[in-house]
TrEMBL record:
Record EC number: 4.2.1.136, 5.1.99.6
Cofactor descriptive note: Binds 1 potassium ion per subunit.
Occurrences of domain YjeF C-terminal (ranges): 223-491
GO MF, one annotated term: ATP binding
Pfam family, one: Carb_kinase
Annotated signal peptide: none
Keyword annotations from UniProtKB, A to Z: ATP-binding, Isomerase, Lyase, Metal-binding, Multifunctional enzyme, NAD, NADP, Nucleotide-binding, Potassium
Protein name: Bifunctional NAD(P)H-hydrate repair enzyme
Span of domain YjeF N-terminal: 16-217
Gene name of this polypeptide: nnrD
Amino acid sequence: MTASAHRHNLYTVDQVRALDLRAIETLGIPGYELMRRAAWAGLSSLRRHWPQLGRIAVYCGPGNNGGDGFLLAALAREEGLQVELFALGAESGGDAALARTAYEASGGRVLHWDEQSSLPNVELHVDALYGTGLRRAPEPAVAVLIERINASGVPVLALDVPSGLNADTGHCPGAAIRASVTVSFIAAKRGLHTGHAAEQVGIVELDTLGLPDELWRGSSADAVLLQVQSLPPRARYAHKGDNGHVLAIGGNHGTAGAVRLCAEAALRAGAGLVSVATQVGNLVGLNSARPELMAHAVNGPQAVTPLIERATVLAVGPGLGQGAWGHALWLTALDSDKPLVLDADGLNLLALESRRFVQPAVLTPHPGEAARLLGITTKEVELDRFAAVRALAQRYGAVVVLKGAGSLISDPDGRLAVCPWGNPGMASGGMGDLLTGIIAALLAQGLTPWQAACLGVGLHARAGDEAAQAGERGLIASDLLMPLRQLLNAQPFDGPGL
């Protein structure tokens, strides 16, 4: 396995520091040499993305990230670029001091940044202010600099991590650089791939700095990025019974659309049969709009129990409500011990009546629902989405999908995957209902909860990206149904791999 094979592995800041230390102490690569390689990687990225520019500004902090910036500036001068360099302090430490000396020896001038300084007239800003160690808000003077860079309208190349972004969590405690491109070094940092990071990182590139594969030997990543996958072709003698029977339970008064989207997504994701347990008033609309669905009026546990017994997997929650009707169906479904996917009011009811699942289960909360399930605030969930999704999976004994930019999937053992696809157009009603149906259909076709959640989240997000090619604004949930079918059939199956 080559170093490039680690590109889908995501690491914590502490894990990256350990890799960096191992490269120095065990492999014998000096820290300054790693800094020099990082500078070359940054300059190479600059040249790929902005081949015609001639004037750049580099902003260097006092640590090793600033050292990367000093050496990039020196290399850029050697290649004929005009460089303006601002440093946060009069001195740098460690290897960064050597890099600063090298820049000055090349004839470069170091300017000191303060709040009275003005941004230079350049074609690109290079952010080397703070690296992975920053967990607090930047100092006020630096916050002013970051805000001015963001408001300049000039593209930004961030070295390793956009300054102000927590590389562990994706949270921004204060001002943070909005990069056009982020070139990250040695190993991918997990915080660059979820939450608010989506607004800050731009295009993310990884350069492993030519380090040998033995650097990673014996080390385990904290998480993985999902990769493109699908299901194998069906056997030529397949029949509908081979592909499972999903029962979607929901659609209280006024919410028939939610359960229909869920059920139709289950059909498009390949379930052999899909039934709907809903209010009687929804039957005509469901039968006329999608006759392939088997819609049943249920008024309580006695009516829904025979439907549950015939089903392979239950999709519980879309449009369910939290009243007496929804609660009774929810309780009957959970007590059945059938494999299930729980969303929306299915999760809100779980927050009120907590239980640990013994049957295979996938929970799909958004941050607000996750907060209710954990008994904390939504802000606390977003402060560390990785910790939140792992806590949910452990507490409820289920695979959990924490939705949002960079959706996360975790299981009770702490295994974690991150979705690299999706777009802001998917922030509209009904998208979660689709995801519930997709995952339920994959469970019904024999995938484990982990496999179904990972494949389902990936298909859902990729279908959203396909549908958004006509524009993100105005994207609606049903726009994803045909791209979903195409993606599900487009790729050869190479195993869940997660």
